[in-house]
Automatic annotation (TrEMBL):
Family affiliation: Belongs to the dihydrofolate reductase family.
Keyword Cytoplasm (UniProt): no
Provenance organism: Rhizobium mesoamericanum STM3625
Residue span(s) of domain DHFR: 5-170
Gene designation per UniProt: dhfrIII
UniProt pathway annotation: Cofactor biosynthesis; tetrahydrofolate biosynthesis; 5,6,7,8-tetrahydrofolate from 7,8-dihydrofolate: step 1/1
Name of the featured protein: Dihydrofolate reductase
Length: 171
């Protein structure tokens, strides 16, 4: 059985900010479309605060929410896990059963901080601005990560800022 790739999917500002007051500090319709394309059909892992900010399970994806309170996500389309390790094991099992070779870790800050050491790939939307916020993403160490693809994305009519989409693979 082939290895299941663990991919972090994140949008991050120039100064490392990914969130403010339980939400993203920007509007990026172009990035949301790419996020959907990257994660569709794959198990997604998120923390409870991220799940709460989305407000519902993401369609056509197995949603796994990490929470210490298992009743926190009483929804039939949501799996819960007590830890990142438990969530990854469950996501890999679901991925194998559904014939996909990738799981996606989609936030938030605490989950990313733990997952960055486990991840094989980073799909990062670099938001071309610096912003105030209360949640950040760890700095990407180029000694550990190699750029595989870079796409400059000008701001569309429903985007707050231009972005650069970069795929990094672990060296």
């Amino acid at each position: 059985m082939s290895e299941i790739r663990k991919t972090i999917v994140v949008a991050v500002s120039k100064n490392g900010i990914i969130g403010r007051d339980g939400d993203m500090p920007w509007r990026l319709s172009t990035d949301l479309k790419r996020f959907k394309a990257v994660t569709l059909g794959k198990p997604v892992i998120m923390g409870r605060k991220t799940y709460d900010s989305i407000g519902k399970p993401l369609p056509e994806r197995a949603n796994i929410v990490i929470s210490r309170q298992l009743a926190a996500t009483a929804h039939p389309d949501v799996h819960t896990a007590n830890s990142l390790t438990e969530a990854v094991n469950l996501a890999e099992e679901i991925a194998r059963k559904s014939g996909v070779n990738e799981i996606c870790i989609i936030g938030g800050g605490q989950i990313y901080a733990q997952a960055v050491n486990l991840a094989d790939r980073l799909c990062v939307t670099h938001v071309e601005t610096s912003l105030e916020g209360d949640t950040s993403f760890p700095a990407i160490d180029t000694a550990l990560w190699k750029v595989m693809e870079t796409i400059d994305v000008p701001a569309g009519d429903k985007d707050s800022y231009p972005t650069k989409f970069v795929v990094y693979d672990r060296r």
